[in-house]
Design a protein that fits this description.
Distance between the termini: 132 Å
Radius of gyration: 32 Å
Number of strands: 14
Number of helices: 9
Shape: flat
Length: 322
């Protein structure tokens, strides 16, 4: 009887030295999830001292920035992100894919350390697939977000930097959860994460409505990310928009923020030009008489008043001149 496939490489292995990686089997070399830890006795203590215990000039600082957002509405979930990876003033990449496709029904966003988010959300995809194989059904969004929260919480204090959103559609409808590297897990209808999130929240809060149409929701998400990239130096590049529906997620668009910036400038100029043209247009009717400065005719006004009074029977009509 043929034996089943070997799944030993799916187990997480830890080593205190990179030398241990050389002892992996050929099958494990390309697929192992073994993690090489720093060559110190207590990695958590080492990282704490490096970031907080050292003098200011020797202290490590992670300077990163991004803008991601997602919100739930009557048509599902809209997620939008920028694509810039930065380290302080240095822009490392302008084409980072910050929405990670976990499976056909689940999406995750990336904010914080790119490697941390990418690795652990892809690991989450593997675990969700194993759940489906074991239980013959899709994992719920709540359970998937809980798996990620439990995983990163087990590494608390070891230097992970993550602020992610897990979203999807399961048997109970659309759901959105926020998970960070401290193990925090929140459920909500609207989140924005990253250095540009304050700018994105300003636009998002002003335009959000539960019963908005799909087109309006997409436009709101794209506009929110655009304004964040325009004001936040650590955000920029391409604006990617996804729509999560009952049938699964769909990628809507990838637009260069500079092209959107030019479109917004052109629209604003057209509005300003129309306003200036309206202010400079000549008035009509009674406004033209007032603008022309012609003096009113008191005799005509008196005649009109007498005629009105006569029609009511108050006074006799004026005698006509001969």
């Amino acid at each position: 009887m043929a034996s089943g496939p070997c799944l030993d490489f799916l187990s997480t292995q830890f080593s205190l030295s990179r030398v241990d990686d050389a002892r992996l089997t050929p099958l494990q070399e390309g697929t192992s999830s073994a993690i090489a830890l720093p060559l110190v006795d207590q990695p958590a203590n080492f990282l704490r001292d490096a970031f907080a215990g050292a003098s200011e000039k020797d202290r490590l600082h992670f300077a990163h920035g991004t803008t991601t957002l997602a919100f739930v509405f009557q048509g599902g979930i809209i997620a939008a992100v920028d694509s810039r990876a930065s380290m302080g003033q240095y822009v490392g990449s302008g084409t980072v894919k910050k929405i990670i496709e976990i499976n056909p029904y689940l999406l995750g966003t990336m904010a914080g350390g790119a490697a941390d988010c990418s690795f652990w959300e892809r690991d989450l995809g593997r675990r969700c697939r194993l759940y489906e194989l074991r239980n013959k059904q899709r994992i719920s969004v709540a359970a998937a977000s809980k798996l990620l929260a439990n995983t990163v919480y087990s590494y608390k204090g070891m230097g992970l930097s993550m602020g992610t959103m897990i979203m999807g559609w399961d048997v109970s409808g659309p759901h959105l959860h926020y998970v960070d590297s401290e193990g925090t897990r929140l459920k909500g209808n609207k989140f924005s994460v990253g250095s540009g999130s304050t700018y994105a929240y300003g636009v998002l809060d002003a335009g959000y409505s539960w019963d908005m149409s799909v087109d309006d929701a997409i436009h709101l998400a794209r506009r929110s990310i655009y304004h964040a990239t325009h004001r936040d130096a650590a955000s920029g590049g391409v604006i990617n928009v996804y729509h999560v529906k009952e049938e699964g997620w769909v990628k809507i668009s990838s637009d260069d923020m500079m092209i959107i910036h030019d479109q917004v400038k052109a629209e604003k100029k057209a509005v300003d030009d129309a306003a200036e043209a309206a202010e400079g247009a000549p008035a009509s009717g009674a406004e033209m008489v007032v603008a022309g400065g012609s003096a009113p005719n008191p005799t005509a006004a008196q005649d009109a008043g007498d005629a009105t009074a006569a029609s009511r029977g108050d006074v006799p009509p004026p005698a006509s001149s001969t």
